[in-house]
Design brief:
Structural class: mainly alpha
Strand order of the largest sheet: 1-2
Largest sheet: 2 strands, antiparallel
Shape: globular
Strand content: under 5%
Order of helices and strands: HEEHHHHHH
Number of strands: 2
Radius of gyration: 16 Å
Length: about 140
């Protein structure tokens, strides 16, 4: 909770995401910003405006996330590599996630609300790179 403001900023910085995390969901600690109805409406709007449609599902996204990419998403890859032993937020989250995965650097747990936050943090950076290439679209979790 001490770092919620910083994490929320990073995990909600995508114009593509339909699964941005929020803490206002009465049923979960961290929920999704858009309801199913809103997702359908936004999807229809994007379909109507686009010339081409590409659908993609990042196969086995959660099990294949490299935990060091958490720090890369938060601080940049170069900075993170130069400061891999500093107690930055990204390095601490990386270590916490590794501890949940028996010390492995591959994978984030499937199911916990915190994993939604971590996944959104990473995928927001991917979305931002796509937007730089003039790509528009929508993403719900790991489905584009």
């Amino acid at each position: 909770m001490d770092n919620w403001a910083a994490l929320e900023k990073e995990a909600t910085g995508s114009s593509f995401s339909l699964s941005s995390p929020v803490t206002t969901d009465p049923k979960r600690g961290i929920g999704r910003k858009h309801s199913m109805d809103e997702r359908s409406e936004r999807r229809a709007q994007v379909y109507a405006e686009g010339r081409y449609l590409l659908r993609a599902d990042l196969s086995r996204f959660y099990p294949s996330v490299y935990t060091h990419s958490i720090s890369w998403a938060l601080h940049g890859k170069e900075y993170s590599k130069q400061h891999k032993f500093d107690p930055t937020l990204g390095n601490r989250l990386d270590k916490f996630v590794q501890n949940c995965q028996n010390g492995q650097t591959n994978g984030i747990p499937i199911g916990p609300d915190t994993s939604l936050l971590i996944a959104e943090t990473i995928l927001c950076k991917v979305d931002q790179e796509l937007a730089k290439q003039k790509v528009t679209g929508l993403r719900n979790l790991d489905d584009y």
